[in-house]
Amino acid sequence: MKSLDKVLILGGSGFIGQELVSALDFHMIAPIRKMSNQNNLILRDSVEYIEFNEFMIADALKKCKVVLYLIEDISFLQERAPDFKKYTSEIFLHKILERLTNHHHIVYMSSRLVYGPKFNFPVKETDKLDPDTLYGKSKLYHENLITSKSNEYGFSYTILRPTNVYTLKKRTTSNNIINVFYKAIIEQRELCVYGSGNQIRDYANVDVLSILLSIILKSKGSNDVINVGSSIGTSINEIVEIFQEFSRNSFKVKQVDVNVDEGTFIADCSKMRGLIDVSTSLKCDVATLLECE
After folding, report:
1. What stretches of the chain adopt beta strand conformation (E)?
2. CA 246 to chain centre
3. φ, ψ dihedrals at 52, nearest 5°
4. Which of 242, 252, 256 is nearest to 193 (CA)?
5. Phi and psi (nearest 5°) for 236?
C-alpha cells in the first residue's frame, strides 16, 4: 500500500476508534456527526474531518481505497442526520459495500461473540459460529454480508474478531474490566465483581490491535479472518489479585450476586502472532497502568 493512500475510518468516535485514530500513521478521512464535534476531538494533521452524510461518504470512498469499519450502531445517525433515518445498521453497511470496487479493501471490526458458547479452547477462526446474543448475531450477519458482497463486487476484506480490548491510557471511555477496576482504585471506590468471578476471558491490549491494523492497512492483504487476543485465559478473580499485587492503595472488593455468563473464552491467536510479535502480558500491563497511581 502506497503511503499516499488514504483510509476512510467509519466509527472513529468510540473508545477503539479514538485509540486507533491517535495511533495509526496514515492519512485518514473521518466522518463525524457534526463538524462542531471537532472541539471534542484531539485533532491531527493526518486526519481530514468531514460531515457525516451520504454525499460526503460517497465522495470519500472515491479518494480512499481502504475502509476501516468500526461502527457499532447507527442510532445516532437516525436521530441527527435526515439521510439515515430509514436505515438500520445492516442497510447502512450494505450501502457502503455496494460502493466498493475491486480496488477497495475493507477492514471490519467484528467480535469474539460470533462464536457463541464454546467448550474446546483455544477457539480457532475456522470453528463453528453459533452466537447466542443479539450483538453476536448482528456481527455475524455483517460478516456474512461482507463475504457475500465481496464475491459480487470484487473488493477484498479483513475481518477482525477481538476479544476483550483494554487500554493503558489513564483517561478513557473504555468499559473493559481492566480500565473499570483502575478507575475505581483511583477514585477510591470498591471493585465490584459480578457473579463468582471465576469467568475466564481472553484480553487484548489496544496497542496490539493498532500494530496489527497498521500491518493490514499497509499490505491490503487477501480475504482473511483474524482473532485478536492473547490466547491466555484470565479470570476476574485473577485480575483482582493482579491489581492487589501492584496497587499502592488498598481497596475493598465487593461481590455482586447476579446472573452473568460464567463461561470461558480463549481465542487461538496464532494467525495474529504470525503477523506481529506480541510481547505484552496482562500482568505487565496492569503494573504499567498502576505505575503513576
Report:
1. 6-10, 27-32, 47-51, 64-69, 105-109, 156-162, 164-166, 191-194, 200-205, 224-228, 233-235, 253-256
2. 27
3. -85, 85
4. 256
5. -60, -40
Domains of the chain, CATH where assigned: 6-163+204-228 (3.40.50.720), 165-202+231-289 (3.90.25.10)
Those residues with Cβ within 8 angstroms of residue 132's Cβ, 6 or more apart along the chain or in another chain: 116, 117
Tell me how far CA of residue 173 lies from CA of 13, 113, 170, 191, in angstroms: 10, 21, 10, 18
DSSP structural state of residue 87: -
How far is residue 38 CA from its own chain's centroid? Answer: 22
pLDDT (tens digit, 9 = 90+) per residue, 142-196?
999 999 999 999 999 999 999 999 999 888 888 999 999 999 999 999 999 999 9
> Cell triple for residue 184?
475505581
Does 221 score more than 50 pLDDT?
yes
In eight-state DSSP terms, residue 7 is: E
Q: Residue type for 53, please?
A: N
